[in-house]
Amino acid sequence: MLAEERVPEATLSVSLIEQDSVWVGFIHQHTLYVRASSWSDVDVRESIMAVMELAESLECQNVALCVPKTANQIQPFVHDLLLVGFELIHPQAMQLKSSVQCNYICVGMEL
To answer: At how many degrees (to 10) do helices 44-57 and 74-83 cross?
Structure first.
């Protein structure tokens, strides 16, 4: 992608009682890609709904969540995402750098 075509990063802050988690994302080809600084300290259902609502308001057609492979409780978290309709995204399908492919599991959903 050419530099002038890049969309600046946006942040979405999801808060729980005394905890904050900053989710960093960008839009590429009608897809909102999101990476959270932490998945273990947020209300997953509320957070996913907020991301999906944001994607719809930005007129995105898809949402992709990138989960660090080193995250705590990654297996049950990804399993829960698959149960609610997310699908694993093959790393090469997103045309991301190999460092991203090696360090993250990405799941996506069509809106």
So the answer is: 50
Q: What is the pTM of this model?
A: 0.76
Give the gyration radius of the chain's Cα atoms.
13
Spatial separation of the C-alpha atoms in residues 10 and 107, rounded to whole Å: 19
Q: Domains, the chain, ranges and CATH? A: 3-110 (3.40.630.60)
**pLDDT tens digit string along 62-98?**
999 988 888 777 888 888 889 889 999 887 776 666 6
Whole-angstrom distance, CA of residue 46 vs CA of residue 17: 13
Yes or no: say if 32 and 64 are a contact pair by the CB < 8 Å rule: yes
Please give the backbone phi and psi of residue 2, each rounded to the nearest 5 degrees, phi first.
-70, 150
Q: Contacts for 86-93 with beta carbons within 8 Å, 24 or more apart?
A: 89/64
Cβ-in-10-Å burial (0-12, 13-18, 19+) of 31 comes to buried
